[in-house]
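FIELD: query
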Amino acid sequence: MKTFYDFHASPVGNLLLAINEGGLSHLHFDKGPGSLPIRPDWTHDSSRLDHVRAQVDAYFAGALQAFDLALAPTGTDFQIAVWNELVRIPYGETTSYGAIARTLGDITASRAVGAANGQNPIAIIVPCHRVIGSTGKLVGYGGGLPTKRFLIDLEQRHRTFALVP
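FIELD: result
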Protein backbone atom coordinates (compact mmCIF):
# COMPACT_ATOMS: atom_id res chain seq x y z
CA MET A 1 0.00 0.00 0.00
CA LYS A 2 1.51 3.32 -1.11
CA THR A 3 1.80 6.05 1.53
CA PHE A 4 2.11 9.76 0.76
CA TYR A 5 3.31 12.37 3.23
CA ASP A 6 3.81 16.07 3.74
CA PHE A 7 4.48 18.51 6.55
CA HIS A 8 2.03 21.13 7.73
CA ALA A 9 2.72 24.20 9.85
CA SER A 10 0.41 24.59 12.84
CA PRO A 11 0.26 26.65 16.04
CA VAL A 12 1.93 23.72 17.85
CA GLY A 13 4.73 23.31 15.29
CA ASN A 14 5.17 21.33 12.12
CA LEU A 15 3.01 18.25 11.78
CA LEU A 16 3.91 15.21 9.70
CA LEU A 17 0.85 13.98 7.81
CA ALA A 18 0.72 10.64 6.00
CA ILE A 19 -2.10 9.09 4.00
CA ASN A 20 -2.65 5.82 2.16
CA GLU A 21 -5.56 4.36 0.21
CA GLY A 22 -7.37 3.60 3.48
CA GLY A 23 -7.16 7.16 4.78
CA LEU A 24 -5.01 9.21 7.12
CA SER A 25 -2.49 6.88 8.72
CA HIS A 26 -0.31 9.33 10.65
CA LEU A 27 -0.39 12.78 12.17
CA HIS A 28 2.75 13.25 14.25
CA PHE A 29 4.62 16.15 15.73
CA ASP A 30 7.75 16.97 13.78
CA LYS A 31 9.85 17.27 16.93
CA GLY A 32 9.82 15.74 20.39
CA PRO A 33 8.76 12.38 21.78
CA GLY A 34 5.81 12.14 19.38
CA SER A 35 7.91 12.61 16.26
CA LEU A 36 8.08 9.96 13.56
CA PRO A 37 10.79 9.47 10.96
CA ILE A 38 9.70 9.46 7.34
CA ARG A 39 9.81 5.92 6.08
CA PRO A 40 11.90 5.20 2.97
CA ASP A 41 8.91 3.75 1.09
CA TRP A 42 6.79 6.90 1.60
CA THR A 43 6.37 9.40 -1.25
CA HIS A 44 6.24 13.15 -0.76
CA ASP A 45 3.03 14.55 -2.28
CA SER A 46 1.42 17.60 -0.70
CA SER A 47 -1.67 17.65 -2.93
CA ARG A 48 -3.00 14.37 -1.54
CA LEU A 49 -3.22 15.94 1.91
CA ASP A 50 -4.99 19.21 1.07
CA HIS A 51 -8.29 18.04 2.61
CA VAL A 52 -6.50 17.03 5.81
CA ARG A 53 -4.68 20.37 6.05
CA ALA A 54 -7.96 22.26 5.55
CA GLN A 55 -9.61 20.44 8.45
CA VAL A 56 -6.55 20.79 10.70
CA ASP A 57 -6.47 24.54 10.00
CA ALA A 58 -10.20 24.85 10.73
CA TYR A 59 -9.67 22.96 14.01
CA PHE A 60 -6.90 25.33 15.10
CA ALA A 61 -9.07 28.32 14.12
CA GLY A 62 -11.78 27.01 16.46
CA ALA A 63 -14.17 26.50 13.54
CA LEU A 64 -14.13 22.66 13.46
CA GLN A 65 -15.08 20.47 16.39
CA ALA A 66 -15.42 17.11 14.61
CA PHE A 67 -13.11 15.85 11.89
CA ASP A 68 -14.59 14.17 8.82
CA LEU A 69 -11.68 12.13 7.53
CA ALA A 70 -11.15 8.50 6.62
CA LEU A 71 -8.68 7.12 9.16
CA ALA A 72 -6.33 4.18 8.67
CA PRO A 73 -4.36 3.63 11.88
CA THR A 74 -2.40 0.43 12.30
CA GLY A 75 -2.28 -1.25 15.70
CA THR A 76 -3.25 -4.22 17.81
CA ASP A 77 -6.90 -5.01 18.47
CA PHE A 78 -6.54 -3.47 21.95
CA GLN A 79 -4.91 -0.31 20.60
CA ILE A 80 -7.66 0.08 17.99
CA ALA A 81 -10.29 -0.36 20.73
CA VAL A 82 -8.62 2.38 22.81
CA TRP A 83 -8.32 4.71 19.81
CA ASN A 84 -12.00 4.13 19.01
CA GLU A 85 -12.81 5.26 22.56
CA LEU A 86 -10.63 8.35 22.12
CA VAL A 87 -12.70 9.58 19.17
CA ARG A 88 -15.81 9.30 21.36
CA ILE A 89 -14.50 11.85 23.89
CA PRO A 90 -16.49 15.03 23.20
CA TYR A 91 -14.67 18.11 21.95
CA GLY A 92 -13.59 20.30 24.85
CA GLU A 93 -13.92 17.55 27.44
CA THR A 94 -11.41 15.25 29.10
CA THR A 95 -11.48 11.79 30.60
CA SER A 96 -9.02 9.55 32.44
CA TYR A 97 -7.13 6.43 31.50
CA GLY A 98 -9.12 4.59 34.16
CA ALA A 99 -12.44 5.72 32.71
CA ILE A 100 -11.45 4.37 29.31
CA ALA A 101 -10.33 1.09 30.92
CA ARG A 102 -13.75 0.81 32.61
CA THR A 103 -15.49 1.50 29.29
CA LEU A 104 -13.46 -1.31 27.73
CA GLY A 105 -14.55 -3.63 30.55
CA ASP A 106 -11.26 -3.98 32.46
CA ILE A 107 -10.83 -1.65 35.43
CA THR A 108 -7.24 -2.86 35.86
CA ALA A 109 -6.16 -1.81 32.34
CA SER A 110 -5.34 1.87 33.02
CA ARG A 111 -1.65 1.40 32.27
CA ALA A 112 -2.40 -0.58 29.10
CA VAL A 113 -4.77 2.20 28.02
CA GLY A 114 -1.98 4.71 28.68
CA ALA A 115 0.44 2.68 26.58
CA ALA A 116 -2.07 2.42 23.71
CA ASN A 117 -2.80 6.13 24.01
CA GLY A 118 0.94 6.80 23.71
CA GLN A 119 1.09 4.76 20.49
CA ASN A 120 -1.75 6.67 18.82
CA PRO A 121 -0.51 7.31 15.26
CA ILE A 122 -3.03 10.07 14.49
CA ALA A 123 -2.58 12.76 17.15
CA ILE A 124 -5.12 15.58 17.49
CA ILE A 125 -7.66 13.90 15.17
CA VAL A 126 -7.74 10.82 17.39
CA PRO A 127 -7.72 13.07 20.46
CA CYS A 128 -5.32 11.43 22.88
CA HIS A 129 -4.71 14.92 24.33
CA ARG A 130 -8.16 14.66 25.96
CA VAL A 131 -6.96 11.91 28.30
CA ILE A 132 -5.62 13.08 31.64
CA GLY A 133 -4.57 11.48 34.91
CA SER A 134 -7.17 10.37 37.47
CA THR A 135 -6.30 13.38 39.65
CA GLY A 136 -7.01 15.80 36.79
CA LYS A 137 -3.31 16.39 36.18
CA LEU A 138 -1.90 16.48 32.66
CA VAL A 139 0.33 13.49 32.09
CA GLY A 140 2.32 12.28 29.10
CA TYR A 141 1.84 13.56 25.58
CA GLY A 142 3.89 12.96 22.42
CA GLY A 143 3.78 16.65 21.56
CA GLY A 144 4.81 17.61 25.09
CA LEU A 145 2.67 18.81 27.99
CA PRO A 146 2.59 22.47 26.82
CA THR A 147 1.06 21.26 23.53
CA LYS A 148 -1.45 19.12 25.40
CA ARG A 149 -2.43 22.12 27.53
CA PHE A 150 -2.70 24.30 24.39
CA LEU A 151 -5.05 21.80 22.68
CA ILE A 152 -7.27 21.36 25.75
CA ASP A 153 -7.48 25.13 26.26
CA LEU A 154 -8.22 25.70 22.55
CA GLU A 155 -11.12 23.27 22.65
CA GLN A 156 -12.52 24.62 25.89
CA ARG A 157 -12.48 28.17 24.47
CA HIS A 158 -14.26 27.19 21.27
CA ARG A 159 -16.69 24.46 22.26
CA THR A 160 -20.33 25.13 21.70
CA PHE A 161 -23.22 23.77 23.66
CA ALA A 162 -26.57 22.72 22.30
CA LEU A 163 -29.51 24.24 24.13
CA VAL A 164 -32.05 21.70 25.22
CA PRO A 165 -35.67 22.92 24.84
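FIELD: remark
Strands lie at 4-8, 15-20, 23-29, 43-44, 95-96, 131-132.
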